[in-house]
Fold these 2 entries.
Entry 1:
Amino acid sequence: MANLDFRTTPVVEFDDTKIFGTADTAANFAKVVGDDASLQRKLSALQRGPVRFYQNNVIALNEDVADHLMFVVTGVVRSCKNRKSGNRSIVSFYLPGDFVGWVDAKLSLSIEASTDTELLFIKRTGLVSLAAQNVRVANVLLTATTNELARAQEHVLLMNKSAKCRAATFLSDLWVRLGKAQYLDVPMSHQDIADYLGLTIETLSRSITDLERAGLIARVPSRRLILQNHFGLRRVN
Amino acid sequence: MANLDFRTTPVVEFDDTKIFGTADTAANFAKVVGDDASLQRKLSALQRGPVRFYQNNVIALNEDVADHLMFVVTGVVRSCKNRKSGNRSIVSFYLPGDFVGWVDAKLSLSIEASTDTELLFIKRTGLVSLAAQNVRVANVLLTATTNELARAQEHVLLMNKSAKCRAATFLSDLWVRLGKAQYLDVPMSHQDIADYLGLTIETLSRSITDLERAGLIARVPSRRLILQNHFGLRRVN
DNA sequence: CGCTCATTTGAGGAACTTCAAGGTCAGTGG
DNA sequence: CCACTGACCTTGAAGTTCCTCAAATGAGCG
């Protein structure tokens, strides 16, 4: 809903030539198909990167992703609709290990870096023809798309619930997707979360405060949370 | 939101042995991969049906669809979440030519007949291994899932708009999906549409009345509409 | 016609948004 | 070290949209 500069005049600042080594903890594209070395070589041949993007920069407009798919190595990517009116909806967040870019042109979404992020770019046609030779790859792709479909459908369901329930479910889901660590370090801004949940930041803030007062979560400085009662969080109405 | 009998105690009344001839106008599963006769034979071997289901009956609970995918030949199928509280959200409508059942277990959705419908049942594993031998099949499956993903994402975007805009967009989209005929014969009930749009039937009714008064649509008896100003419908806020 | 069920209309209330102000935190420079 | 800044988050009060509840109207069918 905010009308910030970076949305109306987004700037792409990544340096295409700068190649980063992938940290051990970061998501690895080749690993998704298992340990077959020859297959991993073929997959590596299809990929370019990782390429780094800085927070709030546009990675691609959805018209551009016709021939490439992206794979998130580190950070968080958002796909969103920026309306002329200045308000915005975030359709999905992509975390390390997720593929971005299955949905082409029609929706004219903008793919942006919600945090600093590193991405691999993968030739779409090459990946599909690899899938047509190898059941394992075919299954990985089908699983990737149906998982994203499942998340989109859960997102739809979430939009029919109250503000407090949306916030609670979001935090709980994020905690699970990030690996159920002791602390939940929320990587994206409240504005991003609000735009994802279809709420204003004010309503989001009030909802989170309610959850805190109910003893379901506790706050630690700098966007860090403790989910004190995870089961309770999932039962909020 | 309604709490009707068929929701709390759904009855499956289809007769598994009753096989219908598919009308010429109905969607044809084998045709989706083109004219290759040998391929069509392999696909036919994977399918069972068409099986008929009557309006408001449960076709499958999402736990059941692990090994079968469905293909809509005639009628409309809905996938929905029925909550204990009695209220309901419809996640998606499937029209002739659509595949149903990509998303498995996790969401525990109920697949139901929104109108009388005829479905083909397709062995999931067989279809996937066929995709791993044939680029065309692989592409059809990938296209089917990404199209559904695109629709789900549009659905998310829709939930951030006003009631009147949701109704207008729904009618316009339905008209397009059904082939842009002169008349739009809305196949599903207002309750179904309301549950899809996250509105009450009252708000939906008021919204449609507003659209009529604005001259964007006109009503003809028995759920038939004329979209008098299709361009205007898409611009409603 | 008289039944039932679906849809429409109205009045009041709840939830969320809007607008406006105040607070917190990290980084910066005196 | 401390004040200053700007981005981000929180809180409060008023306004809007949609929901809830209740009743009226309309459509389909024996």
Entry 2:
Amino acid sequence: MPTVDVYSALANPVRRGLLEGLIDGPRPAGELAGAFSLSRPAVSEHLAVLKRAGLVHEEPRGRHRYYHLRPEPLAEVGDWLHPFEHYWRARMGALRDVLDEISDSDSDKADSGAS
Amino acid sequence: MPTVDVYSALANPVRRGLLEGLIDGPRPAGELAGAFSLSRPAVSEHLAVLKRAGLVHEEPRGRHRYYHLRPEPLAEVGDWLHPFEHYWRARMGALRDVLDEISDSDSDKADSGAS
DNA sequence: AGAATGTGTCGGAGATCTCCGACGCGTCAA
DNA sequence: TTGACGCGTCGGAGATCTCCGACACATTCT
């Protein structure tokens, strides 16, 4: 129960999916479990890990338990990534230019989609 | 042995440290191992994991093996983080204002330099 | 050639993860 | 109160991780 570091919490695809499912707003545990074709205990345990990592927050509401996203700890990952970001951007600069030109003729149509 | 996803590769603090140690440039395995008070086989195995994740590249050179940073796969993590980034920035807006005001009275070196 | 150096790989021990079925506890409806 | 529902926790099985000492292999030096 001590704590879980954010990186380990993010290492599991189910947990990443749970966080994605919470972007739109709080959801009860059962609803989240239904989306993963996993047993409820398994999802419950994943949620507990996310809670220990400080990435979600429990709100008991009636006989449901709503989970809220708490994305602040993700900032640590973003910060860690930062020095590398410059690096990979530099290496991908040429490719970026090409892609920019292609999407330039397509306009800047942003679409939001989960992976 | 197929491949390792970037998130799992990043879940271990030693592996993150290895990547950090490669930012300044390629280094031989032994030098990297010395910085971690870990046995050589352990570091070697961590490097193998990073290699399977596509995060480093081996360059045999004499009787050394230089490891090069290959940060492109980290872009996946950055992309995944993106939708959350907006979220946590919004939530930290108020705190940001307070901090800005504090550092404002501290000196005049507070300049918001975004990339 | 023979010795020394730099590294990966093998074999195994111990810890940790992931998942499940069964159960207990609290909440809501009748 | 009694029963149905939502959900966490317990106990355990199987897989995976992390680490080490010992060994093998290639390169370099003497």
